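Re: that chain you flagged

S.,

Sorry for the slow reply, it's been a week of failed gels. I finally had a moment to sit down with the sequence you sent. For the record, here it is as I used it:
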Amino acid sequence: QVQLVESGGGLVQAGGSLRLSCAASARIFSTYTMAWFRQGPGKEREFVARKNWSTYISAYADSVKGRFTISRDNAKNTVYLQMNSLKFEDTAVYYCAAGMGWPPSTYDYWGQGTQVTVSS
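Prediction finished late last night. Pasting the structure tokens below so you have them in one place:
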């Protein structure tokens, strides 16, 4: 049963913007912190951003602060990642995840991933 579905990836030039979407089941969306992770070529998966399900407090990796914004639409059970001022090093497969917040090992639900490629 697929419970997280990402969309919105693609190819963009450096300095450009993309918005990723992740549609979740209602049960997951109303229970868990939603987050984005990414895995670049030859790299380990890393945390990007999360938004707590009850407090709506957001947290970001230092590498994306000021450029990326995570948001939630409760009516659509969807979480977004707005990515601005994209850099070549943002190239990665981006994964949506649902879990207890921190650490990353607490995330039990994962999407299939969506590719983001930033050309320099």
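What I noticed first: The mean pLDDT is 94.

Talk soon,
D.
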